[in-house]
Write a structure and sequence with these properties.
- The protein is an alpha/beta fold and 241 residues long.
- The chain has 2 domains: 1-96 and 173-241, P-loop containing nucleotide triphosphate hydrolases (Rossmann fold, 3-Layer(aba) Sandwich), CATH 3.40.50; 103-172.
- It has 8 helices and 11 strands.
- The strands form 3 sheets. The chain has a 5-stranded parallel beta sheet, with helices on both faces.
- Helix 3 (112-122) packs across helix 4 and helix 3 (112-122) packs parallel to helix 5.
- It is globular and about 50 Å long.
- The chain starts with 6 loop residues before the first strand and ends with a helix.
- It binds adenosine-5'-diphosphate and magnesium ion.
- Adenosine-5'-diphosphate (ADP) binds next to helix 1.
């Protein structure tokens, strides 16, 4: 029996319409890809090719302009993430799909260990248990212990990125979206992240990732999907519509 992908993206397109300037900004164009459990699909291509816009479409930060984003949920049902209702999307974000973006978001004065524990708490884990798992993940990420109890507000780029990754990995999602998770990390910490990604694969997590460094793609990707830069037109809105 051939294994079925848990995510099947077909003909995904995204363009941004700037109504005030009567302009259309092309982003992702006709993207097809598959993501399998226990496997990592890497998205590559030049800056501006629409890589981040693919992840944002899957997480439904953006609504696609065209295409299907077929996801097989843990309950076995197939859902087009482009069409699912908000309630279902929120449930999937809580229970199944995690997104490590390029920027860390957190509440003011929230301790780092609580920022990391948040996905577990949202799934109903008791706070102390969630915090203990969060601390384990921060330790695995080589975060100095003195930082665990304070807010990430004053952290360096690399420290914030580690907090962001720890939060994405702690709840072991079914589908993990990673947007340049190692861009501000040193080599040693990047190696730690590679080790954690390998471990998640063994545990059956499906991953779709964008990496800054091509050598990381070689090390961790099971499949590579290349996006071409969009064709820039300067057409005014009425010609395109
Ligand atoms: N919210 C947005 N509004 C307008 N244009 C956007 C928005 N998000 C992305 N874009 C544009 O879409 C194109 C692709 O962006 P992005 O998906 O971030 O590419 P990549 O991650 O491959 O560098 C870029 O030209 C970018 O400026
Ligand atoms: Mg990007």
């Amino acid at each position: 029996m051939t294994e079925q992908a848990i995510l099947r993206v077909e003909g995904y397109c995204k363009q941004f319409v700037l109504h005030e300037q009567l302009k259309v900004i092309p982003s992702s164009h006709n993207v097809d890809l598959e993501v399998f459990s226990g496997s990592l699909t890497a998205l590559v291509g030049p800056t501006g090719a629409g890589k981040s816009s693919v992840l944002k479409g899957i997480y439904r930060t953006y609504l696609p302009s065209a295409g299907c984003l077929n996801y097989t949920a843990a309950d076995g049902r197939d859902i087009d993430l482009a069409k699912a209702d908000e309630h279902r999307i929120l449930q999937l974000r809580r229970d199944e799909i995690a997104f490590v973006t390029q920027f860390l978001r957190f509440l003011p004065r929230q301790a780092t260990e609580d920022v990391v524990a948040q996905p577990l708490v949202q799934r109903g884990r008791p706070l102390e248990e969630a915090r203990a798992l969060a601390r384990d993940m921060l330790a695995a990420m080589n975060m100095p212990r003195r930082l665990w109890g304070i807010s990430p507000a004053t952290f360096s780029g690399g420290e914030r990125q580690r907090v962001n990754l720890a939060r994405g990995l702690v709840a072991k999602p079914r589908l993990l979206l990673l947007d340049e998770p190692t861009a501000s990390l040193d080599l040693k910490t990047s190696d730690l992240v590679v080790g954690l990604i390998e471990k998640l694969k063994q545990e059956g997590v499906a991953m779709l990732a964008i990496f800054h460094q091509p050598e990381l793609v070689k090390r961790v990707a099971d499949r590579v999907v290349e996006l071409k830069p969009p064709i820039m037109t300067d057409s005014p809105l009425e010609e395109i519509a």
